[in-house]
Amino acid sequence: MTAPVRITGARITPVAFVDPPLLNTVGVHQPYALRAIIQLDTDGGLVGLGETYADTAHLTRLEAAAEAIVGLDVFALGSMRAAIEATLDTLSVTGGDGVAGMITTASTTDRVFSPFEVACLDVQGKATGRPVSDLLGGAVRDAVPFSAYLFYKWAGHPGAEADSWGEALDPEGLVRQARKMIAEYGFGAIKVKGGVFPPDEEIAGIKALRAAFPDLPLRLDPNAAWTVDTSIRVASELNGIVEYLEDPTPGLDGMAEVAREAKMPLATNMCVVAFDHLEPAVRKNSVGVVLSDHHYWGGLQRSRLLAGICDTFGFGLSMHSNSHLGISLAAMVHLAAATPNLTYACDTHWPWKSEDVIEPGAIGFVDGAVPVPTSPGLGVEIDEDALAALHQQYLDCGIRDRDDTGYMKSIDATFENTSPRW
Ligand SMILES: O=C([O-])C(=O)C[C@H](O)[C@@H](O)C(=O)[O-]
Ligand SMILES: [Mg+2]
Fold it and tell me: What are the φ and ψ backbone dihedral angles of 68, each rounded to 5 degrees?
């Protein structure tokens, strides 16, 4: 039997990495995206890795949680979650969700527990010589398919040079972006981040993509930018064209109204983001597909629990993403590999980043999918020089919280973050 592997501490390092001006309904991505990297130290010398948001309040909570779990066995995940919950109850920080106000009702405990749970699973895997997917029930696929995640975007940040992706502000720009991303990564499905332009312009964008890629599944996600009536109209225009419509309108009740009329399933990473949202979502028939995200569903094991509930109630299941680095990708891939009822290609922001904290080569895309690492643990290791450089970038860049709306307002003072907008 493997002896207890006790936690001796956790190093939490905020990092900043270059991010293009990706547009969404709440504003635009700042020049740098923030993440916190967790290196969990144990008495035997094994180190586990985790990755999460790095907004100021979240960092305060992570530091408190790191202290609360010293001395615990990395296999004692139930006790660890309880210890973190108890510690968070003593803190009086607010905000810091790291998702620009788009996912505000997730559980704080689950959000803070998640990177520590992932790091513990990494250590468990290293201690037992098994990949994390084995600790989650075993991989049922060798590779995990992802979708091309398209964004409307400016050519570059104001005052800076154009980035290698260039501008995408109309249907031609979206198709150009899709061609480049698919040529580089081989994705077999396309998601468009909408809610940026009036719905008819985005419908035209989706139709242009359909014409350019007749065989690829398409999705549109306006992050609740539309009223119920607008959502029903868009759903009718896109009938037979998108495989699902993602968060067209705010709230479980609005989604249920749209779902009654729409022919395609509705997916969500906004109105079902915590376990206590599942019962009303089932009762109201609000959604057909849940987009899970281990960063706020409480880690990989609780995401497996979510998958079981989705299976029981007949929900489709896929995965949401935010701007992320390689530790998160590895965790997403192990989870997806061990989730039999994953019914759609997962989301990832991976193509939008040009920097990372992990040693290169351990994880990557082949034909639009990520082969599941088979080495012990997550299968990725920290590149200490890269971590130090991206931490320095964090210190230098001055950004301490994700604020798409504030950044947009600094460029266009008339911008208002309203939901629904159309
Ligand atoms: O599916 C989603 O809602 C997302 O991916 C949320 C993200 O924050 C996305 O809107 C972004 O990166 O701007
Ligand atoms: Mg979404």
Answer: -70, -20
Q: CA angle, corner 235, sides to 230 and 241, nearest 5?
A: 145
404 lies in a domain? Answer: no
The two structure tokens encoding residue 115: 């990177």
- State which residues form the domain around 103: 7-130+384-396
Q: 263-282: per-residue pLDDT in tens? A: 999 999 999 999 999 999 99
Residues 269 and 315 in one domain: yes
Q: Is 284 a catalytic residue?
A: no
Q: Which ipTM score applies to this complex?
A: 0.99
The tally of domains found in the chain comes to 2
CATH code, domain with 361? 3.20.20.120
Residue 1's pLDDT is: 66
Report residue 144: phi and psi, to 5°.
-110, 120
Residues of the chain with pLDDT under 50: none
CATH number of the domain at 391, please.
Answer: 3.30.390.10
pLDDT digits (tens, 9 = 90+) for 327-341: 999 999 999 999 999
Q: What are the tokens at 291? A: 């987009």
Domain contains 413: no
Smallest CA separation from ligand 1 atom 1, residue: 320
Average pLDDT, the chain: 97
The residue whose C-alpha atom lies closest to atom 7 belonging to ligand 1 is 322
Residues 125 and 189 in one domain: no
Query: Is there a domain that residue 420 lies in?
Result: no
Residues 115 and 20 in one domain: yes
Shared domain check, 206 and 125: no
- Tell me if the bond preceding 420 is cis, omega within 30° of 0: yes
Give the pLDDT of residue 132.
99
Query: pLDDT tens-digit profile of 85-130?
Result: 999 999 988 888 788 878 778 899 999 999 999 999 999 999 999 9
Entry pTM: 0.98
Same domain, 146 and 98: no
Centre of ligand 1 from the C-alpha of residue 127, in Å: 35
CB 74 within 8 A of CB 5: yes
Per annotation, catalytic residue among 29, 58, 191, 193:
193
E strand or H helix at 313: helix 299-313
320 a catalytic residue? yes
